[in-house]
Amino acid sequence: MHTHVNAVGLLVCTDPATNFSYPAHIPRDCIDSLPRQPGVYIFRDAAGIALYIGKSVNIRQRVLSHLRTLEEAQMLARTCRIEHERTGGEIGALLREAQLIKEHQPVFNRKLRRIREMCSIRLGGALPEVVFAKEADFGRTEGLFGLFQTRKAAQETLRNMAHSDGLCSVMTGLEKGAPGRPCFARQLKRCRGACTGEESATEHAARVRAALAPLRVTPWPYPGAIAIVEKSDGLRQRQLVDNWCYLGTRQPRRKRATRFDVDVYRILARPLLEGGLTIEQL
């Protein structure tokens, strides 16, 4: 809030938020019907196209905050209706928001819009390698570390790790080398000599794995699909998930192919692995 003293000595508030007025072109009925429970909401234009999709544990409170945000004036000017959909809890709202944004690609959503082709660092062979999701099922593959949008980002992580942990740039696949010949890092005394045989390949591989450990991608921890059960003010929902892929709230009639979804993984990995959710195995 900004204030100043005017010519007659009165303290005047210049906070632009105080000049807020309700967008009269948005029908009041869609605002009045907003619940105070968890769920998702959609701002639509005159043609019914989704402009923005959001989620909240209190739909009404969150939508009203949008209407008071001057930075969102452009979106509000194009909005002709606001719809909402309740969920059984916060997890359901997060999953449904990610699903709807991918489906509708709203122009005012900055995140989650693109279905990204992710890559990861895989350990298993002689050297770490960068693999893409089209080459390996990330949800069921052991030995993956980190989720990156580009090969360059994955290699940069390896390069930083090699520098900070004294790893060999040849043995991490960052530099080509001949047997027994010191890598560039060894010449600068930053490598312990895995390239020249002064450090065993086994010991070096163990140090690589330890350095990458915080980035480990956890494979799907169940033999098949599960339902995450949530309840909110009389609404009980089962969010179906398999292989870090969101399937919706209803069991599909036919078994559907599941593809690792990085957004679902980031939403669920911690609460699911920490045991804080009510789970039904299907």
Automatic annotation (TrEMBL):
Superkingdom of this protein's organism: Bacteria
Molecular function terms from GO: endonuclease activity; hydrolase activity
Occurrences of domain GIY-YIG (ranges): 36-110
Gene Ontology CC terms, in alphabetical order: excinuclease repair complex
Keyword hit for Nucleus: no
Record's keyword annotation contains DNA repair: yes
InterPro entries, per the entry: GIY-YIG_endonuc, GIY-YIG_endonuc_sf, GIY-YIG_UvrC_Cho, UvrABC_protein_C
Alphabetic keyword roster: DNA damage, DNA excision, DNA repair, Endonuclease, Excision nuclease, Hydrolase, Nuclease, SOS response
CDD domains per UniProt: GIY-YIG_UvrC_Cho (cd10434)
Biological-process GO terms, alphabetical: nucleotide-excision repair; SOS response
PROSITE patterns per UniProt: GIY_YIG
Protein name: Excinuclease cho
Organism: Pseudoduganella plicata
